[in-house]
């Protein structure tokens, strides 16, 4: 039994284009979009409609914005005299102010100030306004729509609030800043008030301590007699100094008195008269008596010279002189006695002063010890006074600062009730619609691509099936010339007769050329036309291929090898006297079974109704002899076989043919099914020339960009008109 030598599978493998360097095939994406434009358009339209519905159902939201500035350095009406001056505001301080503005504490103050618990927006459940839960919910709702942010790196903070009521949005935005400023003022006022109260209490305590310390100093000074006479001396020291001075004076006076007494006594001892004593004693009385004595002595001398001793005037003058001498002596004695008494008094005074100095010096030693304790008490009293004065100054400052506190922030602009709602923003919703449309389109496209397993292009055939792509057969209804015909779409086999110059007919001529020049070990005359599944255009392709070949002048015969369906037989002839089974079994000759197709000139061997070629006879020598005779008598033999996956006899017939044309329906036949069919054909040694796409919608192919010549159909379609 002669078997055809199958062409090695390596010879049927074609080179694949290396797309490993392409990260993204934009052309393939574009072709996919063009192909799926209707689902994409529907998905996009649905996205836009859904967005429009959401836009219509969305409540308008108005956003009001107020701005405040954090003061970099607070100007104080009452400057602080202590060293703890407030620091200048820095960037972290501004960020801290932003967080405080967003705090629940400020939100709670706004809720209370504006009485928001009674507003439906902040109390949707209409709970009692006095309930704590309603206040907490209002605070959460307020914080949910509040936006506080710093403007760049400046000291300006913007406060925005979104609400369905524009007036409420402005009230809340302004209220947040007002309550922040008021909270800062309350904090400053409270701090000043607390400081004044604390300082006042402390002052009362310090005042008592100062009074106690000063009383202790005074009591100790009084008990120890420590009275300050000056800044550098005490009473005892001053007294000692005075006594020392007096002692010196007393000693000088004593020395002077003793000197005068000694002088007088020494003169008396030498027998000195009143004259010398008077001069020594420096007594005016003695000097006056001495002057009188000198006069009387002169008178006595004169009288003595002229008169005798008994002369009365002389006696009287002598008596006066004697009386004056007695007075002088008495005065001298009195002066000497006085000098003696004076010397004793001076000596006693000196001794008394010296005794007093000794007592004062003893008391001074005692006072020195007491002064140390006094100094300690005075230092304690002075410390208490200094601390008291410091607290008194701070108290006066705190009292003076009350009512002059600043918040450290100032409102720049108040929020006005907005006129145009911030949301729903048509631009934003349009963007959402566009994004949704793109996402929905991509999802639809990916899903459809995932569930689509059919082959669409020659490139896909060669990559997936690893066999040559022989061409594509258009779907007749997609061609312009067929759509223009009245009465609906014609029969394809009749169309190739009526329109031999059409693109549909040309596709079969191109297919015949590809089959005849397919690489094989022998001349190609017998072609088996098969497919993986029924309904893929196999019978129409076989008939059209046979008629086209016959019209081109080739002696062509079509053999209906599908005894189950007999599609070719039904379409080609009404009267079938003998069929393929009769020829193979030898009941009739080949000439008796051949039927002439008059319109095209082709011949046909049909299947007689009720007859069926046994499976074991399709691979018998009789079947081979029939095919060998047909090869010698005809130029082109077309075998219309059953689907490969449905009927096993198709593989037997494929092994007897010179080459096999495998058909896959465009976008319908799963690539996996085509792979299985090719493997089964390869298993029986059949030579598959290639795969052709059948029933290709050239309009959709050109629109989607998937295809070969169909991609450029719009450029050359006029050629077939």
Descriptive notes:
With 721 residues, the chain is an alpha/beta fold. A hairpin with a 5-residue loop joins strand 2 and strand 3. Residues 1-22 and 229-233 have low confidence and may be disordered. The radius of gyration is 73 Å and the shape is rod-shaped. Helix 7 packs antiparallel against helix 11 (312-401) and helix 10 packs antiparallel against helix 11 (312-401). The strands form 2 sheets. An 8-stranded mixed β-sheet has the order 5-12-11-6-10-7-9-8, sandwiched between helices. Strands 2-3-1-4 form a 4-stranded antiparallel β-sheet. 34% of the residues are buried. The chain has helices spanning 9-12, 26-35, 37-57, 91-101, 104-114, 132-144, 166-224, 235-269, 274-281, 284-306, 312-401, 426-451, 458-465, 480-483, 492-498, 503-516, 538-551, 567-572, 580-584, 590-593, 615-618, 621-633, 649-656, 671-683, 698-704, 713-716, and strands at residues 62-70, 146-150, 156-163, 409-413, 469-474, 526-531, 556-560, 594-597, 602-605, 636-640, 659-665, 688-696. It has 26 helices and 12 strands. It is 59% helix and 10% strand. Among the domains are: 235-401, no CATH class; 468-716, Rossmann fold (3-Layer(aba) Sandwich).
Major β-sheet annotation: 8 strands, mixed
- CATH domain fold name of one domain: Rossmann fold
Q: Average pLDDT, to the nearest integer?
A: 77
Q: In DSSP terms, counting alpha (H) and pi (I) runs of 4 or more, how many helices? A: 26
Strand order of the largest sheet: 5-12-11-6-10-7-9-8
- Count of extended strands: 12
N-to-C CA distance: 50 Å
* CATH level 1 class label of one domain: Alpha Beta
| CA gyration radius, whole angstroms | 73 Å
Taking pLDDT < 50 over at least 5 consecutive residues as the criterion, the unreliable ranges are 1-22, 229-233
CATH architecture of one domain: 3-Layer(aba) Sandwich
CATH superfamily of one domain: P-loop containing nucleotide triphosphate hydrolases
Structural class: alpha/beta
Tell the overall outline: rod-shaped
Instruction: Report helical residue fraction.
Output: 55-70%
Percent strand equals 5-15%
């Amino acid at each position: 039994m002669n078997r055809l030598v199958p062409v090695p599978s390596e010879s049927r493998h074609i080179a694949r284009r290396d797309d490993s360097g392409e990260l993204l095939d934009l052309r393939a994406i574009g072709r996919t979009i063009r192909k799926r434009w209707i689902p994409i358009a529907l998905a996009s339209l649905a996205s836009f409609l859904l967005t429009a519905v959401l836009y219509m159902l969305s409540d308008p939201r108005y956003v009001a914005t107020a701005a405040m500035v954090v003061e970099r350095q607070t100007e104080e009406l009452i400057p602080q005299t202590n060293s703890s001056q407030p620091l200048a505001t820095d960037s972290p301080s501004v960020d801290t102010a932003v967080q405080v503005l967003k705090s629940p504490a400020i939100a709670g103050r706004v809720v209370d100030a504006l009485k928001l618990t009674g507003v439906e927006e902040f109390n949707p459940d209409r709970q009692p306004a006095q309930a704590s839960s309603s206040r907490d919910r209002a605070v959460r709702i307020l914080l949910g729509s509040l936006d506080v942010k710093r403007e760049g790196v400046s000291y300006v903070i913007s406060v925005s609030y979104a609400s369905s009521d524009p007036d409420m949005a402005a009230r809340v935005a302004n209220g947040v800043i007002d309550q922040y400023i008021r909270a800062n003022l309350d904090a400053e006022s409270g701090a000043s008030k607390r400081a004044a109260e604390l300082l006042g209490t402390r002052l009362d305590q310090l005042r008592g301590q100062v009074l106690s310390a000063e009383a202790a100093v005074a009591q100790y000074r009084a008990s120890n007699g420590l009275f300050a006479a000056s800044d550098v001396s005490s009473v005892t020291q001053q007294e000692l100094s005075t006594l020392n001075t007096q002692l010196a004076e007393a000693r000088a006076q004593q020395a002077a008195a003793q000197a005068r007494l000694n002088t007088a006594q020494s003169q008396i001892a030498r027998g000195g008269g009143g004259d010398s004593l008077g001069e020594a004693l420096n007594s005016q009385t003695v000097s006056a008596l001495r002057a009188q004595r000198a006069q009387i002595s002169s008178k006595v001398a004169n009288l003595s010279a002229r008169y005798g001793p008994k002369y009365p005037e002389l006696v009287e003058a002598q008596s006066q002189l004697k009386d004056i001498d007695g007075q002088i002596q008495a005065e001298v004695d009195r002066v000497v006695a006085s000098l003696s008494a004076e010397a004793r008094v001076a000596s006693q005074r000196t001794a008394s002063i010296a005794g007093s100095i000794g007592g004062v010096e003893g008391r001074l030693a005692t006072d020195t010890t007491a002064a140390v304790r006094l100094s300690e008490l005075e230092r304690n009293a002075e410390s208490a006074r200094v601390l008291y004065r410091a607290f008194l100054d701070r108290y006066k400052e705190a009292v003076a600062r009350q009512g002059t506190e600043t918040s450290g922030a100032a409102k720049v602009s108040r929020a006005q009730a907005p006129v145009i709602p911030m949301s729903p923003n048509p631009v934003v919703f349009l963007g959402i619609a566009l994004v949704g449309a793109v996402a929905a389109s991509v999802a639809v496209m990916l899903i459809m691509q995932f569930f689509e397993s059919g082959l669409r292009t020659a490139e896909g055939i060669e990559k997936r099936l690893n066999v040559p792509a022989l061409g594509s057969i258009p779907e007749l209804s997609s061609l312009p010339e067929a759509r223009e015909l009245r009465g609906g779409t014609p029969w394809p086999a009749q169309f190739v007769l009526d329109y031999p110059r059409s693109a549909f007919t040309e596709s079969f001529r191109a297919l015949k050329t590809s089959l005849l020049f397919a690489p094989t070990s022998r001349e190609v005359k017998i072609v088996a036309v098969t497919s993986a599944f029924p309904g893929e255009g196999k019978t129409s392709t076989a008939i059209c291929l046979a008629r086209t070949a016959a019209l081109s002048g080739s002696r062509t015969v079509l053999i209906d090898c599908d005894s189950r369906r007999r599609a070719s037989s039904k379409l080609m002839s009404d009267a079938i006297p003998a069929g393929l089974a009769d020829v193979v079994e030898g009941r009739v000759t080949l000439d008796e079974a051949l039927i002439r197709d008059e319109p095209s000139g082709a011949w046909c061997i049909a299947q007689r109704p009720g007859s069926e070629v046994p499976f074991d006879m399709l691979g018998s020598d009789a079947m081979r002899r029939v095919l060998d005779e047909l090869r010698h008598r005809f130029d082109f033999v077309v075998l219309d076989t059953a689907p490969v996956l449905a009927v096993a006899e198709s593989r037997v017939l494929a092994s007897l043919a010179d080459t096999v044309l495998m058909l896959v329906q465009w976008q319908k036949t799963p690539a996996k099914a085509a792979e299985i069919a090719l493997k089964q054909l390869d298993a029986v040694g059949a030579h598959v020339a290639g795969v052709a796409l059948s029933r290709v919608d050239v309009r959709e192919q050109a629109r989607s960009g998937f295809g070969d010549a169909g991609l450029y159909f719009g450029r050359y379609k006029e050629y077939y008109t």
